[in-house]
Records
---
Amino acid sequence: MGEISNFQLGVVGALFLSVASSVSIVICNKALMSNLGFPFATTLTSWHLMVTYCTLHVAHRLNFFESKPIDTKTVVLFGMLNGISIGFLNLSLGFNSVGFYQMTKLAIIPFTVMLETIFLKKQFSSKIRLSLFLLLVGVGIASITDLQLNFMGTVLSLLAIITTCVGQILTNTIQKRLSVSSTQLLYQSAPFQAAILFVSGPFLDQCLTNKNVFAYKYSPVVLAFIILSCLISVSVNFSTFLVIGKTSPVTYQVLGHLKTCLVLGFGYTLLHDPFTERNLIGILVAIAGMGLYSYFCTQESKKKQGDLCLGSQIKDKETAALLAGVHQDKESHEVKKSNKDSLV
């Protein structure tokens, strides 16, 4: 029971760290891109990953964690896939309206459920599916304002959905099957994610913004916000791998939509962004869906733990009965042998 309590405490800590760091970096990046005019999102992400790797490397050298070797091919492909998914998401935002981009993010949950059901044989109860549907409806009401379709944007969105889902499923699967921690996996894969975005980032950003990241004039304020964003990103990247490893890709996506609701709320409260009754209704519906999802997941988890405990108790009883039978047979054999010896 102590191990279960520690695990639950670790999950809560990971969720809190993910929410706090993600909301912080969104606010920081919004100030950097909207207010200070630094639009190079993909290049900034590559810097995030490089700083994350350097931080983990220092932590490794100081013996804060042990590096566990992982098959090179697996790490390279995994890192490249995650880097490509980030690129596709940024391209999707560049070629689509904000509303269609939000639809892309919403589609990640049902697509992840479909992939896990087909390939990993994972079962999702009707209650879980209902809570996810309610969540998606709420986030859709709160965040989707327009839907402008175009062929290139649709293709990029589909590629973004596929690569993101597969990458997050692999994050969970690799940690569990290879028995590596989130820190070890992030440490091994971050250089490859950073490399592919560092090479492609300036080109993608120039395609989307018609501006050159190397020709940009970096003021002290912009540099300060870039450094702050990179420092926060260490916590974001670490908590992402931690949450997916301890829970599931679907739970991580649910958490992501909670962050969306919080960002909308913070934007209205702190930045005085426009806020309507539709936004409020959508957020309330989404929070209701998240609450139901958390409740149903907790109930199913307790049921599984109860079944495991019951199975363990039955097994212990069967073992005890077997040992008792062996002991009785041994005593009976010794009595027969004693009787035989007395007759002789």
---
Amino acid sequence: MFCVYSSSSSSIKSSIFPKSISFPSSHFNNFKNPFLNCKTPMENQSFSVLSASKAQNGGVIQDSSFQGSESFFRSVLGNMEAIYLNKNPTAKAILELVRSADGDQICYDHFAFRTFGVNGHGIDSMSKFFLDFGYERREELRFPAKKLKAFWFSPPKVSTSSRGSGVNGPLPRIFISELLVDQLSPEAQEIIKKYTNISHCGKEYAALASAFGILTWEKPSYSEFQQLARESEYAAWTLVNGYALNHVTISTHRLASNLRSIGNLNQFIEENGFNLNSEGGILKVSPDGLLLQSSTVADSTSFEFSDGTTEAVPCSYIEFAERLVLPQYKDLPTEKVEEFHRRDGFEVGNADKIFESTSKDQLTRRAA
């Protein structure tokens, strides 16, 4: 049985599904079939990890090209976005608020996903979809205290001008993290392995699960959720949200108004009654001072567990990122600055604090 979230996507022009997701039982049977008898995926693919700043030779950017149907790819991203917005009213309200103040040219810096690093359900399960369409795997980031690792993926060149908004604009970077399950207690490992084993070959359909807003395993019990939450809030979040889009990030420096400054945007958001993640300070700044990030506190939703218990669980949040111009390009006229002139990649210190947007401490602060 899949966990299906009803959603309304009328406001998402790029959605490939109708206004609500409501499937007859026969559809679930159809969905289950691919998961039952599937071949073992190639878990250990060979990737080239490149530097955060795109390599340049004589001003030419070395980058991958888009592969496949761009309209299909953007439609999948669009439905991931639609599911995310319908489950997270804060993100939807903020996007509408920024559009009303700045115009309809919001660009996404990155999409982020969480995974279980066990039995092939980790980073590779979600990254395959993006790699197949021309994304390139970049640096690894490690978070020892949280027992996490992550990779980010740079977008390919596209044939269109990509001057649209949201998923129809410049393709976002992708950030995928995974929980290092073998570092957890035996009890926590047992719970996670129980559900990833139920999922079986669901790991091969991670992007599909994300685009439909469904789990690839059965609903857990409330006691199992609580047990994981005591040891790893990341684990508990992933158990009930699966491959759902964890957050999207607005690229602030691509905005047209004074909100292009992340400090102004943060003030604007707070003045409109939204709580920002305060862990490590509202503004998270990389050591080089060139990557500035902030995020809201996650929304919550009611979740009916397998034992019939219904409780609020954390959903997702929205992030904001300003990438400043690299020192070697500081004298470029503003109108000539392109994205590759700016600080690329991610920062462990920033990301570590952004992860806290779904933590109990931040959710409690939101409710206060």
---
Amino acid sequence: MATASFSGLQFSMSRSCIPSSQKIADASAVVLGGKSKIGSWNKLASACNVASVQPFQRGFTSSSIKSVKGVTKATSESSAESAVSGLPINLKGKRAFIAGVADDNGYGWAIAKSLAAAGAEILVGTWVPALNIFESSLRRGKFDGSRILPDGSMMEIAKVYPLDAVFDNPDEVPEDIKTNKRYAGSSKWTVQEVAESVKEDFGSIDILVHSLANGPEVTKPLLETSRNGYLAAISASSYSYVSLLKHFLPILNPGGSSISLTYIASERIIPGYGGGMSSAKAALESDTRVLAFEAGRKRKIRVNTISAGPLRSRAAKAIGFIDMMIDYSSANAPLQKELSAEEVGNAAAFLASPLASAITGTVLYVDNGLNAMGVGVDSPIFKDLDIPKDQH
């Protein structure tokens, strides 16, 4: 699925990495850092929305689709029965498919968790080579600490599907991928087949999340990026979203929501974020507007993207300068704090909820306001200005 996500700096397989059309898994995104802890669901740091550029170290033998039984229970019965004040985000009775979840360390996981906390049933798509280890970790309880929801219950994943979003249908899969041992044992993992499987298993969904990206040459300056590397970044990080929405649209219930992850490099220069990834994010944002019109007119589906700030994650670390980007954001953003994956997840839950019923075709910035800045106030040039600084 070559799909992962480096958000924050968006890379794919956030734990997804695919140096060619073969590596892109989420994760995310590449997706995110700091792990959430029991009783304190704050530090699920996600990172750049680009797939991890380094492939998994061990070879996996993908297993066939396995179901992690259990329906997501976001609230306990007692709390569900009690009166809720204010404007709660209520997604009970809704079903979400999140493409790009390969571990508990990325944007995809954080979004799944927030949607589950709001009551949604969770389905996930995991990059094929990462499927076996992801399902094994779930079974062995490795993610139990990260599965704890605010009310103390555990997030459940109704089903895990193998997915490689770089391929639309079986006819497009090259022979070397079909015979690759990392894909052995798994079937029906192209976008078209996954959409058909979800329809067969559940009938329909209400929320579609694209948390995938991959830039095999992300560490190269644009002037040194090859044509193949550039096109691979576009294919895995932007066209994969077009394909997902195209194939899932027929089973998305009217009034539903579709969300992707982008990064400020789409409109600002971020040295070091290369390989065509900035172009891929710009394309993703442009596509978001067009898809909002087309999906809105066809099935009343809202289409938005979240531009997340830099987050610490395994995928982001592969780029090499995530710590510097986080420090820069802390020094220059209006809100001087480190962004957490939970904040990105909560923004996604809002966009998927009835509270955002009139919001579509939008880029929502979740970056502590860094996007609004025109200069870096930590520059020596501004040393004599009386610029307020967070004292906490």
---
Amino acid sequence: MSWNVIHDGDGSASRIVLKEHTGSTAEVLFLGGQVISWKNERREELLFRSNKTLWKPPKAFRGGIPISFPQFGTFGSLERHGFARNRVWLLDDSPSPLPAANSQSTVDLILKSTEEDLKIWPHRFEVRLRISLSAGKLTLIPRVRNIDNKPFSFTFSLRNYLSVSDISEVRVEGLETLDYFDNLQRGERYTEQADAITFDSETDRVYLSTPTKTAIIDHEKKRTYVLQKDGMADAVVWNPWDKKAKSLPDLGDEDYKKMLCVDSAAVETPIILKPSEEWRGRQELSTVSSSYCSGQLDPRKVLYG
């Protein structure tokens, strides 16, 4: 179990490749600290990556798991989703106080505020990210520390672009009965009425006070993604559908059929840090073989069993 660094010519696509003993792999860009690939032991790609991804730093890569910090979306005055995804992260040689991850292939990255950052967001910070790969599981542990002499607040998300067979064959369970902000309706607040979330049109919602586990069931692939999280109370569900997909220059016209974003997020209630305080989140993505229609796996057992 190991990792190595692959450098490209101009550094825009320099990345870390993690490997573990069953054959699964993950790739992480230094640009944005962004996971861009997660393959299982059968070499199947589990994260979506756009066919038209534009490698034009500092623009973030469309796909994988981009990070929003210190602002999610347009919930603030900064550029959309903040600036952390547009900065080059560094290897973190001293990721204390996290314990060593001896049983996994693990890498630690760090992003520190610069004088340029302070011009647009006047707060000194350190963001650390641990990425750990083990059999059937990808774990991300983000941490934000206030190294300033005054408090600050921020919103945050890990946007998970999941690879699916066909968006019309996918359902999300675990978010039913919850309140959500509908970004397609000027952020109005609604309550989810469906037994599970299914997709037949553009969806852009922030679900509030969500449980720690969510199941994303792909009927055609007979695969269920299990998203487990801590420290990030909200969940964002997004698919652009056909009209919006055609308006995005770095997304193929038909790509919306093969992707679904389910984010771990802290949006409704910003995180407040006093000087020297640190916030820690955790996200664990795993997959289980499933066939909901044939009864081989009841998603309720995944969520609550």
